[in-house]
């Protein structure tokens, strides 16, 4: 098996650890066998992957709370559907395209299969089981697709969206991932993105932004005079629950990206990552709340929710090196950026239903560029190169896919269908039927 290079420096660390733990002296001193380390690393992948999978529930709750009642069932289906599609596509093509035999730009066009023969034969130098690694990487790709779902909600057709997810998760995301986590050309330059502020979040954000521009705004969102007509979400308690679920899942997203749990050093690193991740979110919430109070004389709950997510995205590129104080500042700047970016997109008449572009793209870029402030091994020039390269590729490739869909099967609901709501038109059911037209309450 070709061991993934998801974190710069991890391969060297794992190799050194594998050599060390085979030494009887090391085993006696540390009390940790090669097999035990293998088990702990595998467990970390599986447990962290389960936490990241739980983020799919967070996205579903957040998005369903921020769309209107008539579109809730559709957004729920999209979230469970895209997670299923992402897993299948990552198995069929995505994983090997991202990690297998990467030669600078792209990996292997082949079907993934697990190879644990060495470990079953008593050789644990691989570090962890093959399927645990595949599982952990797979749940990441679904996150990128979830970002697109919220941005283009309420006016996109269901099946063209799912076709786009097939291409994004099977081809587009794995290619840029191969440049970085797969050991490709950006990795060789020293690009640093520990858990994916750019590799996951900005890539998803660029794909979402491109789709929103090509798709156009919801009917009635913007007036001819440039005015913005708010379209409040259906359930803010649900959106708040979704935010907390995402906050919890992010510990697996960032903490699991240590990619090892077989030593005290690894566990200490994971603990620091957890702490930095949570406090960056806290900084984002407080900064967004204070800024909305200053600007609008009232606190905006949806901005506070997005402030938490902004802090989480911002710290994701480098959660391993800051102090707690630095993490709070990085997250707070993310929260400020969201408050600024959301109305800016509205001025540009780019309709982002849940604020995903502001959270994941804008803060993904900020988080990536912030890494050199706390990591001496990263440089601003290389970080910028990575941001621009992955952004340019994703914009061009996404635009091609969106436009092909637009001029073939069509991507937008008709005005009549949009007014009725995608639940009634495409699913034939409502999330809240007791509040539907003509309903009788007892």
Automatic annotation (TrEMBL):
Q: Which Gene Ontology molecular function entries are recorded, alphabetically?
A: ammonium channel activity
Taxonomic lineage of the native organism: Bacteria, Pseudomonadati, Pseudomonadota, Alphaproteobacteria, Rhodospirillales
Major location (coarse): membrane
Question: What are the BP-aspect GO terms?
Answer: ammonium homeostasis
Q: Which Pfam families match?
A: Ammonium_transp (PF00909)
Q: Where in the cell is it found?
A: Membrane
Gene Ontology cellular component list: membrane
Q: How does it sit in the membrane?
A: Multi-pass membrane protein
Q: Which family does it belong to?
A: Belongs to the ammonia transporter channel (TC 1.A.11.2) family.
Signal peptide annotation = 1-27
Is-annotated flag, keyword Transmembrane helix?
yes
Keyword annotations for this protein, in alphabetical order, are: Ammonia transport, Membrane, Signal, Transmembrane, Transmembrane helix, Transport
Q: Where is the Ammonium transporter AmtB-like domain?
A: 45-432
- What is this protein called in UniProt? Ammonium transporter
Q: Which organism is it from?
A: Thalassospira xianhensis MCCC 1A02616
Which InterPro entries does this one have? Ammonium/urea_transptr, Ammonium_transpt_CS, Ammonium_transptr_marine, NH4_transpt_AmtB-like_dom
Membrane-spanning parts:
43-62, 74-93, 134-152, 159-182, 194-215, 236-253, 273-292, 299-318, 324-346, 353-374, 380-405
């Amino acid at each position: 098996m070709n061991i993934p290079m998801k974190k710069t420096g991890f391969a060297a660390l794992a190799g050194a650890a594998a050599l060390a733990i085979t030494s009887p002296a090391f085993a006696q001193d540390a009390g940790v066998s090669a097999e035990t380390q293998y088990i702990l690393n595998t467990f970390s992948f599986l447990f962290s992957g389960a936490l990241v999978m739980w983020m799919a529930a967070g996205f579903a709750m957040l998005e369903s709370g921020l769309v209107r009642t008539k579109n809730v069932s559709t957004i729920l289906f999209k979230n469970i559907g895209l997670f299923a599609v992402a897993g299948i596509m990552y198995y069929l093509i995505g994983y090997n395209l991202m990690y297998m035999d990467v030669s600078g730009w792209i990996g292997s066009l082949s079907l993934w299969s697990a190879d644990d023969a060495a470990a079953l034969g008593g050789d644990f130098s691989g570090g962890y089981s093959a399927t645990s690694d595949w599982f952990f990487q797979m749940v990441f790709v679904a996150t990128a697709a979830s970002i697109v779902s919220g941005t283009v909600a309420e006016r996109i057709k269901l099946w063209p969206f799912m076709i786009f997810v097939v291409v994004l998760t099977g081809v587009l995301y794995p290619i840029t991932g191969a440049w970085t986590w797969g050991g490709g050309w950006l990795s060789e330059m020293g690009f640093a993105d520990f858990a994916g502020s750019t590799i996951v979040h900005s890539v998803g954000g660029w794909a979402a932004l491109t789709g929103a521009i090509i798709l156009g705004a919801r009917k009635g969102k913007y007036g001819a005079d440039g005015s913005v007509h708010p379209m409040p979400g259906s359930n803010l308690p649900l959106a708040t629950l979704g935010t907390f679920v995402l906050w919890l899942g992010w510990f697996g997203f960032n903490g699991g990206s240590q990619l090892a749990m077989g030593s005290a050093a690894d566990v200490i690193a994971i603990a620091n990552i957890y702490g930095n991740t949570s406090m960056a979110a806290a900084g984002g919430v407080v900064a967004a709340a204070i800024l909305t109070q200053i600007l609008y004389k009232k606190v905006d709950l949806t901005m506070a929710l997005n402030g938490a997510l902004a802090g989480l995205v911002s710290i994701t590129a480098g959660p391993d090196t800051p102090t707690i104080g630095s993490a709070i500042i990085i997250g707070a700047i993310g929260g400020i950026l969201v408050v600024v970016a959301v109305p800016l997109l509205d001025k540009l008449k780019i309709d982002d239903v849940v604020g995903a572009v502001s959270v994941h793209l804008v803060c993904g870029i900020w988080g990536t560029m912030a890494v050199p402030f706390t990591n001496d091994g990263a440089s601003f020039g290389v970080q910028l190169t990575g941001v621009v390269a992955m952004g340019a590729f994703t914009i061009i490739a996404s635009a091609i896919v969106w436009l092909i869909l637009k001029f073939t099967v069509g991507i937008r609901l008709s005005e009549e269908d949009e007014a009725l709501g995608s639940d009634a038109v495409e699913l034939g059911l409502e999330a809240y039927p007791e509040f539907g037209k003509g309903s009788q309450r007892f």
